[in-house]
Write the structure tokens for this entry.
Amino acid sequence: MAKEHRKRDVVVIGAGMAGLTAALYAGRSGLSVLVLESELVGGQIANAAGIENYPGILRVGGGELISAVQTQAESFGAVVDEFDSIVRVELSGQPKMVETESAVYEAGAVILATGMKRRKLSLSEAGRYEGRGVHYCELCDGQAYAGKTVAVIGGGNAAVDAAEYLSKLASKLYLIQRSELRADAASVKRLREHANVEFLLHTEPRALAGDTKLTAATLFDRKAETTREIPLDAVFVNIGVEPNTALFADQVKLDKSGNIAAGEDCRTNLDGVFAAGDVRTKEVRQLTTAAADGTVAALGAVKYLRSLQ
Amino acid sequence: MVKVYSMTSCPWCVKAKKYLESKGVAYQNLDIEEDEAARVACQQLSGDLMVPVITANDKDYVLGFDKAKIDALLGA
Amino acid sequence: MNVYDFSAKNSKGEEISLSEYKGKVLVIVNTASKCGFTPQYEELEELYKTYGERGLVVLGFPCNQFAAQEPGTNEEVQTFCRLNYGVTFPVFAKGDVRGETAQPLFKYLIKEKGFKGFDESHPVAKPLMEALQKNFPEYLEGDSIKWNFTKFLIDRKGNVVERFEPTTPPKAMTKAIEALL
């Protein structure tokens, strides 16, 4: 069955602060706006407990702030759909196509506000142990492994800091990194002072095992090309963040770190396609700068659509 | 009757419930933070206290917001 | 004045006077459903089960003031949330425990028993101290509640006898509790 074609002036991909602000501005300019979100409305701040650096608001929960922005955007006619997943986009040319599971949207302009996400462990069985031995937040879950054997996977500053924290709780801590450490020398030195820490460099996890909870991991030594299994009660994954660009990486120009290459005007290499928020090349990634990008991208889209007429 | 074990502070629970509503599925909301009986039942069903847990027959369940799995559970 | 002069809302929103617990030994604790100290729930539950018959009641006061503010927590990469406890002792409605907006009971408790430092032998003492100095230096000032799972022990007459910091696991309070029972 052919999917229904629907026309929108602007389709915004991603309903975090940048995307919703863009929707607010575009809606207020009288454009028809659809915002698509496949995960949580609010993005990375959906769960933030207390935001104290958004001007004009002394303290607010992330969920509360973002639902206010959503309401504001909707009051100007924007529609937020958080259930329809995008299958494919076609961003060059005019109109632009955004195909979801249920429809094909023809958009005059597209605003990419897909943000960043923490990299997950790329082992198929990792999902099975999530919360049961595979963790991403040492402050949240570390205490449960006091006196146990744990591993931190990753080699950046965040990973080494997590290892430092966990080394004080765990009886044995492995720091597993597939290449060399990237963290500051000072942090690494501090970590080396803990007698219960063992560095496993040039090593990567190949498999996880355990009945209902994690009990062991198979490690591959990339230099020696050997495999061994070690008993483990938990792994804390800290392998960095990455911009969410999989959907359009083949069409939009990215910079070296994988973010969308776009300047302060939020324009990408494609006419009528704008990048806003954390996914864009930039120095400072804050709520305020995300809101600023949303504004610039939306007004850029308004101007672009006028130029077409 | 579809049951959703949840917590009010959990955004994925909110999303799962909204999803059921968008599909016109009636459900019973069971808050494992407030309701002890719900907590026990959730633990018995899934072996843990992680939510959302969605079940239609008190036997098969979906943990987390997983649209495809929820669709399969409802379709079955 | 003693703790019986205070009341708090239960999870159903009903106002409960602490005088309902007259004659009991109480452990009053601020809790959180997601934080590094959550295993303390299990130990508090154990205390409640062990000493309940002899007159101990644990009262939990959930509070989200101390949630880690950093982004990148569990829920960002998972599509579920975890309830870290399954306790049978009374748990009150969520409310603040520090600062201007603190519930009156907690303002009273910290006035009665001030902050005397963390138990440095606890493995979390150092990282907690460092995290507080870095992120919330103002939390370290004065007698305020420093973090989740600060515990106050109340005798059978409603007097605040002792304060235990988050770094004291509930099991380490056994002696002090037995002395009051």
